[in-house]
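User: Okay, second chain of the day. Same drill as before: sequence in, structure tokens out.
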Amino acid sequence: MLGPWAILGALLLATVAVLIVHLPHGAVEAAIFLALAWIWGVGQWRQSRLSSALLQESTVQLKETVNRWASGDLEARVYLDQEDPLDSLAHGMNRVAEVLKERTRDLGEDKDRLETILTSMANGIIIFGHGLQISLINQAAMRLFMVEEKNPQGRHVLEIIRDTGLHDALDRVTREGVTVTNDWSPAEDENVVIECTIAPINQPIGGLGAVLVARDVSSQRQVNRLRQDFVANVSHELQTPLTIIKGFTETLLDDPNLEMAPRFLELIYEETNRMTRLVDDLLALSRMEHHSLPVRWQWVDLTLIVDGTLTKLQARARAQSLNLTSELPLHLPLVWGDPDLLSELFINLVSNAIQYTPNGGQVRIDSLVDPAGEMVAIRIRDSGIGIPAGDLSRIFERFYRVDRARSRASGGTGLGLAIVKHIIELHQGRIEVKSVVGQGSEFTVWLLTREGRR
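Assistant: Same drill. Structure tokens below.
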């Protein structure tokens, strides 16, 4: 398209040519001016066409560059001739692209840092968007909630974590804008406890979302439960002897010359001894747990230790008409340990075997050596009442008794097997238990030999 100045120039030349025609001898001059008008007009027309084509080409280049930016290619740039009227616009767009590139790089680095932090966190993090759909979830959360899907983003919470209680808590947070703490446990294992703290987060659209922080508190809850059970058990264990002592003492205070006074004093003495044994066992356990128990490490002959144990308990076995026998060889591989602690270990185990074996039964002790010679075992087998399968995993807990009446009647503190477990752990050994109700039990203690300590 011709510009206004080109059209005006051509009109002026044509007008001059018309005026000259009316002058004498003006035909030649008129022809010259008309020719100049045509040349001027054609030149301006061609220039206009060239400018239009250049503008169109520049516009296409600008459009292509913008499309490449939109697709994520921020390396694309616009390069025009300096004479191009759109050159200044191209420079401005290139500067914008540089800024966008820097901002995008910064955002990418922030995202990488955030992903690294979320991945390395022990706590689980889940961010929920509109409609309780998962926007982000880290590996810890997938592990804690046992999520098997590789890409749960965009899925509803109930599709990934099938728990209505957790869904209701999330729904309340997004509706009321409050922070809620909720516990979650898998249906197949209620001993696993995941503490979920859910807080609201603002979203650009769609109302409130939520962020869930999850941590495994199973061990902490178990410790708290054991602590509560421990306090309750100690209180219960002390209550009976203290009640007996108090009752008999009050009776003797009322009538010191009572005929039954000697028997009452004997019972008070027995109950005092029971409380003393309980306190001693508790102190021993505490020292073992805090590694403050003095230990005399040396090479120990287990045959001598077990023979000494049988000598101490033989009278008790005969009183119950039990056949207490040892089938140990004269020489077993030496083990590294404390002879006093190992003696206490086997006294507890053999005492339990005698205690839970009916009159006329048998308790046998023999040994095993692993093929590599790295560990030696002492096996204690009885023909007693046995241990129910459901109790096997708990028999090493403090104060846990399979038969409470029988244990208390024998003067047991309920801490014997707990002490056994700690002594074995102190010696880096292990204990195996097999039992059938009505047929008896088998305890096998494995300890390291010289070969095993190399």
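The first helix runs from residue 4 to 21.

User: Thanks, on to the next one.
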